[in-house]
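Ticket #220: bound-state structure for adenosine monophosphate.
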Amino acid sequence: MSQLTIALTKGRILKETLPLLAEVGIVPSEDIASSRKLMFATNRDDIRLLVLRGTDVPTYVQFGAADLGIAGKDTLLENGDDGYYEPIDLGISRCRLMTAGMVDAPPVTGRIRVATKYINVARRYYAEKGVQADIIKLYGAMELAPLIELCDEIVDIVDTGNTLKANGLEPRELIDVVSSRLIVNKGALKIKHKLIQPLLDGFSSLVAARVQRESEAASA
Ligand code: AMP
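RESOLUTION: The complex was predicted; output attached.
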């Protein structure tokens, strides 16, 4: 029997992914949140789940170690899109990819120093604006970097903006809006089409129903 492997992003995206999976009929056979396992069987004999760091999800899908994946658009923008399609915007875990800096900082003259874990996104963004930027790779706690003058700006994801505010920073320019996407390995879509297509249809109907609900709520 042919099997499908779906790579999920752990953390806040996972919390919003599990209800969607349940709605398309996929339920892990144990509680993912309270387990230290990385691979989970499901109620469907032909589907298993991997729980990974977001940055590893596109890699697993690109190389076919997972057939499908769910990851934030920020991660996909940083990673590039080799080897997979991105057919569905699931509309969950929405946030914004932004530049941010210290409140009331004087404008930078000359080269700007930017700290971020999104070095590819940042390089492209500043190059497109024609701004000369030195990009510094960090793995976390980006908000600290301008505070101790490691950099002039950061590129990070912003949801409520509270984390920036708590560290004396302000959002500056929007680079992209972010939400989680379903991605599919290109080869798997051909070879396992019969298994994958019903799932794509299921996710698409869920998303269409949500968009409909949201537009009704907005016009009410
Ligand atoms: P906030 O204080 O609400 O602006 O949240 C900012 C922090 O929460 C960011 O530095 C991110 O690390 C994290 N965050 C916010 N939204 C998301 C998301 N959709 N996916 C992953 N991490 C997020």
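RESOLUTION NOTES: The chain is about 35% helix and 30% strand.
TICKET STATUS: resolved
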